[in-house]
Design brief:
Layout (H helix, E strand, L loop, with lengths): L12 H15 L4 H8 L3 H8 L7 H11 L8 H9 L7 H8 L4 E6 L10 H14 L4 H17 L7 E7 L1 H4 L5 H15 L4 E6 L13 E5 L5 E6 L4 E4 L2 H17 L3 H15 L1
Parallel strand pairs: 1-2, 2-3
Antiparallel strand pairs: 1-4, 4-5, 5-6
Helix pairs in contact: 1-5, 2-3, 4-5, 7-8, 10-12
Length: 279
């Protein structure tokens, strides 16, 4: 124990990760080599992460959760890793994404911007660059956001992909992002998505007026056990909710919104008309 390095969990999120890993390992009476064997690395690698000399990776966090029986829990190292990597994201959003990657049905409603799961890389970069110009995030955080979005989109490409139902407020089509070429490619991406068997795309037109069910973006996920997770956000924070007394009314309102929105065929026609205006 002569060479034991004292840890300061408050030094950084990475240091907090390492300190918690050491604490949980020692609570079980494990040496570093034993944990290393369980997660498939070396004792030296465990030491480097515990002391903050190396950053944890997502695969490492997931294997550690398996070794420590933390998979899917609120205390999982995967959740902590996402909070470290995506610290510029709204509170609650990394937790939501963990559910999103396992959902069998995804329902989205968006106002003003194309939903993230449908954004082209160029559109996503233009949005992130706008936040950099406003000074709300750094260029490095902008790159992380775009990379994180790509990971979310890739997670939908599975042998049994989820059903994705999207309702976009008409304002999403009016809001020009990144110039004509970026918008043309983005609108084409919407048309292509609508042709896929697991995507249903609808536009909520301005004409429905006060009958629009939501005034903020809403995400609803149905998991394999048929439970539903809701996620909603404001300008300052996001919130994940699983309590049925909160989720069920949101699901009902979403169904009402779908009934008020244009059919997929009419929605694609509207998108195509907007695309003509970008060329």
């Amino acid at each position: 124990m002569v060479n034991r390095k004292e840890l300061n969990p408050e030094a950084s999120p990475q240091a907090a990760f390492g300190a918690r890993l050491r604490r949980m390992r020692e609570e079980r009476g494990w040496i570093q080599d034993h944990l290393a064997e369980l997660v498939g690395c070396t004792g030296r690698h465990i030491s480097a992460i515990e002391t903050g000399r190396k950053p944890p990776t997502l695969p490492f966090a997931r294997r550690t959760d398996g070794a420590l029986d933390l998979v899917g829990s609120a205390d999982s190292f995967e959740r902590e890793w996402r909070e470290i990597k995506h610290g510029s994201l709204l509170e609650g959003f990394p937790e939501y994404v963990g559910y999103e990657g396992r959902a069998v049905e995804i329902r989205l409603f968006e106002i003003g911007l194309i939903p993230g799961l449908l954004q082209t890389p160029e559109y996503a970069r233009a949005l992130a660059d706008g936040d950099v110009q406003r000074g709300s995030i750094t260029p490095e955080q902008a790159a992380e956001r775009v990379s994180f979005l790509a990971e979310r989109q890739e997670a939908l490409v599975r042998p049994r992909p989820p059903i994705v139902l999207v309702v976009m407020d008409e304002s999403c089509l009016h809001h020009a992002v990144g110039g004509p070429e970026v918008m043309d490619a983005q609108l084409q991406r919407l048309v292509e998505a609508a042709s896929l068997p697991n995507w249903i795309l609808q536009v909520s037109p301005f004409a429905i007026g006060a009958r629009r069910a939501f005034n903020l973006p809403v995400n609803l996920l149905t998991l394999a056990d048929r439970s539903v997770v809701a996620y909603a956000e404001s300008q300052a924070q996001g919130h994940v909710e699983r309590e049925s007394t909160f989720v069920v009314p949101m699901l009902t309102a979403y169904h009402q919104l779908q009934g008020e929105s244009l059919s997929q065929t009419a929605s694609v026609d509207m998108i195509s008309q907007f695309r003509k205006g970008t060329q």
